[in-house]
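[job 0412] stage=fold_complex status=start
inputs:
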Amino acid sequence: EPEVTQTPSHQVTQMGQEVILRCVPISNHLYFYWYRQILGQKVEFLVSFYNNEISEKSEIFDDQFSVERPDGSNFTLKIRSTKLEDSAMYFCASRAQGGGTDTQYFGPGTRLTVL
Amino acid sequence: KQEVTQIPAALSVPEGENLVLNCSFTDSAIYNLQWFRQDPGKGLTSLLLIQSSQREQTSGRLNASLDKSSGRSTLYIAASQPGDSATYLCAVSEPGANSKLTFGKGITLSVRP
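[job 0412] stage=fold_complex status=done
writing structure:
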């Protein structure tokens, strides 16, 4: 069964460093998302991406964040200068088609620890 | 702004019990509602999706219902097993093609052998 994959599973970085989190969505999916979950808190929407551009972003997704689909398979989230409060589990998700009728499939997550 | 609430935060039941997990949301203008399972330190596994025009969905021992007008959903688990122990999250899909999900905090279920 097709699945969303994410690498690395755990990333440790120093405050102020740049990190890139990688995702490979399910191959025929068109909509891509990043969510994050700070320990003990709700899963929060960060950004959605469709047709090679950001379609919606949350207040959390400020200028320190960017997303890219550099080729036909990868979808990346970059944090330019990490802060302590960026420590969280980051989930990538993908969905086949529009209209809100289809399931979002989530990857296993990348645990980001900022020291 | 959509808010999703799941109460209680934790639940412990003996094996074999039938149980109901509740979810409520403040804005009834949703496209669909998904129930997820999350094991400790792991990702989210989709269990059931109910479209806004549907009343319920079933998969094996799981049955999810949706009452959009009252802003409520329930996940019914029949004959619970220790392997069902996990956190169950409810999420609603907001209007618009992007259909971003708004999540509840989840209910941590423990099924005692």
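[job 0412] summary: The longest strand of chain A covers residues 43-50.
[job 0412] exit 0
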